[in-house]
Specification:
The chain is mainly β. It is built from 2 helices and 14 strands, in the order ααββββββββββββββ. The strands form 4 sheets. Strands 1-2-3-5-4 form a 5-stranded mixed beta barrel. A 4-stranded antiparallel β-sheet has the order 11-8-13-14, with no helix packed on it. A hairpin with a 2-residue loop joins β9 and β10. The N terminus is likely disordered.
């Protein structure tokens, strides 16, 4: 299977990353949509594999723990998001949990059959607002890994070999799915991450 980046989306993400400083300053004044796996860490609601902390702006977040969700709200501080609405997300992105040097790494995107998707990776997490959506990858190491189409079975899955290089042990990989829309739009899905073991 061969992959090639979609130049318009790659260009849009690149231009959007350049303008992040301006966008971030405006984010607090706009409604933003974020996707992620909701966890409770130390008594705080967070999205897995991101620096984002979620606080309730109304809805009870507790029933959504352990679920992949989509939330709308506003940025109220550095890496802090006030949730106005929350619901289960029909789309989901996952990286295999057991990744080791010399082994394999699996990426799987679930969603509406026929949807074009991209998988972006980075070596660190971050939180920036791009087109009123949450981007959870460090833009300085952002890289388009793969793209494809969700099959009739509802998923797109791809496996890569991890080089047998001991220096990769301990490297943490962050990734996020992008769901492409007809007409050139896109939805930034949830992030996931894994640490390569020896």
């Amino acid at each position: 299977m061969s992959f090639s980046p979609l130049a318009p989306v790659a260009g849009l993400l690149s231009r959007a990353c350049v303008a992040l400083t301006v966008v971030a300053s405006l984010a607090a004044a706009q409604t933003v949509t974020v996707h992620g796996d909701l966890e409770n860490v130390g008594g705080q609601f967070v999205f897995s594999c991101t620096p984002l902390t979620l606080v309730s702006g109304g809805p009870d977040l507790q029933p959504f723990l352990g679920m992949n969700v989509v939330a709308t709200g506003t940025v109220v501080g550095t890496d802090t998001f006030s949730v106005q609405t929350i619901a289960a997300d029909p789309n989901e992105f996952e990286i295999s949990n057991d990744v080791s040097v010399g082994g394999t790494i699996d990426f799987e995107v679930s969603g509406q059959p026929g949807t074009q998707v991209q998988i972006w990776i980075a070596l660190a997490d971050d939180f920036n607002v791009v087109k009123k959506q949450g981007l959870f990858l460090d833009t300085s190491s952002l890289f388009l890994l793969a793209q494809g189409v969700i099959t009739g079975g509802g998923d797109f899955e791809i496996t890569f070999n991890v080089p047998n290089d001991p220096t990769l042990a301990g490297v943490e990989i962050f990734a996020q799915a992008v769901f492409l829309e007809p007409g050139g739009g896109f939805t930034l899905g949830n992030a996931d991450c894994v640490t390569i073991t020896p």
